[in-house]
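GNAT superfamily N-acetyltransferase: structure, please.
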Amino acid sequence: MIIKACTLVEIDHLVKEYVEGLSSPFDSFLEEHILSSVFYLIQDDEKDVGYYAIHNNERLTQFYIRRSYQMHAQKLFLQALERHSVKSIFVPTSDELLISLVIDQDFTISKQAYFFQDSLVGMSPVLGDGEAFRLATQDDLEQVQQVCGDFLDNYERWIEKGELFVYYRDADLLGIGLIESSKLLEGLASIGMFTNDAYRKQGVGRAIIVQLRKWCKDRGISPICGCWYYNEASKRTLESGGMVTKTRLLNIDVTNQTTN
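Here you go.
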C-alpha cells in the first residue's frame, strides 16, 4: 500500500463515499477540524483504497476504507496511528467503521458532544410586540459585539456572509442566531444561537432555534447543530426548539488504553 499526502480536491470522490455511508450527519465543529486537517490518500498500486485526515499533527479526524479493502482496515488504521504519532481521535458515532476500529483497541473514550438533527415537528415562530428577527447588518455590529463578547471570533465576517441573525425587542438585542452552510454535507447547515445574559431562561434561545429552523425549511436546507456533551442547558434549549439527537461525538485518547 502507498500512503501519500493529498488535497481535499484529489479525494473528493472518496469523501462523498464516506459521507454517504454515515448514518447521520455531523455539525460545523467537527467539520472545521476535518477541513483544517492534512489529508492522506491510501492506494494499492494505482487503485484508491481510502484516506484519512490528521489535525494539528496529533488528532485523527477521518479514516475511510472502501468496502472492497476493509479486510485491511485494522492494519491500515494502526499504521496511520503509528506513522503520525496520533494522540487522539474524533469519532462521530454515525461512523460505524471508525468507531469499530477504536473499540478493537480498547482506547479510553470520552464523550465530547451531541449532534442534533431536525425533529421535523412543525413549530410556528411567534414574535411578540416590538420583536423582530432578521439578518444582521453592519449597523448591528457594535451592539452584537457588546452583547455577545467573544462568542464568535469575527462578527463582521459572519454578517458579510449573511449567516448571522439578530433578535430584537424594540431596541434591546435579545440574542443572535447563526446558520453556517456545510462544505462537506450537501443541503445541510449548522445552526446555533447566543442569548443575551439579561434575557436568559425566558425562552429566547428556543425562539431563535425555531426561527432558524423555519428559515432553513423555507430554503430547502436541513438544519443540524451540536453542543458540548455536558452543557445540559444548551441541550434542553435545542430540544425545546425542535432538534433531536441520536449521535454523539467521542474523543478518543490513543495514549491511554483501558484494561479488561
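Notes: The longest strand covers residues 243-257.
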